[in-house]
Amino acid sequence: MSLVTPLKRTAIIVTDMKKSLRFYRDVLGLNVWVQGEMGKEVPAIFRLLGAPPGTVRWVILQSEDVDWGMVGLFELRRPSPPRVRPRTLAQANAGEACLVFHTPDVDAVHRGAKKLKLRILCPPTLLEIAERQVLSKEMTLRDPNGVLVNFIQNVRAGTMTLSNRFPGLRSVSNARKAALRKRRSGASSRRRSG
Question: In what order do the strands lie in the sheet with 70-77?
Answer without folding.
Answer: 9-13, 70-77, 55-62, 31-38
